[in-house]
Amino acid sequence: MAPQATQDIVSRENGKRWLPTAKQDQSALEALSQGTPLRGIPTFPSFHEHRTHILEHMAAAFRIFARNGYTEGMAGHNSVRDPEHPHTFWTNPLGHAWALMRASDMILVNYEGKAIGGNMSRPSNSAGFFIHSSLHKARPDVNAACHAHSIHGKAWSAFGRPLEMINQDACVFYGEAQAIYKDFGGVVFDDAESQRLADALGPKGKVLMLTNHGLLTVGETVDEAAYLFTLMERSCQIQLKQTPRLLMGWKRCI
């Protein structure tokens, strides 16, 4: 995409288009050169504006997932904690195409995955939300979770092994950041397995590999969880390219 397109931002307040000036660009570069960090998670003057921001970014994450081919029928689901009512969560409606997802399509559910608000014209994936619910309960820092049936994530999960640190990007998942759930039993219908998922992720985990199933990522924001999912999927793809080497190593051990 051209720089002009990426910088052409529409202001919500007055509808005018805003373009950063050369002076503003230079100031940003100087701040970075002096070690000043980039702006973090934004703050909002009201819960309504915060919620709107979250749902718009959630819809964008679904569309990115669809563009990357992470869709598989009705499978997969993302969730994000409501900023005003932290024991409720926004998630996607069952059977709605991810490529067409809008902020107004999201459903508000409780810990049991039952719809209590938002767009209730479709049911939520209550069975799918069982995967998320215990993670949200156990980890107050987990505001968002993403789970999809991506090709390379499913393929690598069949090994039941963590990613190796074979490149710089994979190092994001070093140590306790990645976890393996070896006994995944399919569709989650009970609290017991949901709790086992949370236990497997642990207090510091960011990504959870469900053996023979796929990937699940969590984050403080839906942006973080979605980014980690795309990075984990790409890292699984790179790891699979090393599979012949791995198989040769296993053969020598037999």
TrEMBL record:
<dbReference type="Pfam" id="PF00596">
    <property type="entry name" value="Aldolase_II"/>
</dbReference>
<dbReference type="InterPro" id="IPR051017">
    <property type="entry name" value="Aldolase-II_Adducin_sf"/>
</dbReference>
<dbReference type="InterPro" id="IPR036409">
    <property type="entry name" value="Aldolase_II/adducin_N_sf"/>
</dbReference>
<dbReference type="GO" id="GO:0051015">
    <property type="term" value="F:actin filament binding"/>
</dbReference>
<dbReference type="GO" id="GO:0005856">
    <property type="term" value="C:cytoskeleton"/>
</dbReference>
<feature type="domain" description="Class II aldolase/adducin N-terminal">
    <location>
        <begin position="56"/>
        <end position="240"/>
    </location>
</feature>
<dbReference type="InterPro" id="IPR001303">
    <property type="entry name" value="Aldolase_II/adducin_N"/>
</dbReference>
<protein>
    <submittedName>
        <fullName>Meiotically up-regulated gene 14 protein</fullName>
    </submittedName>
</protein>
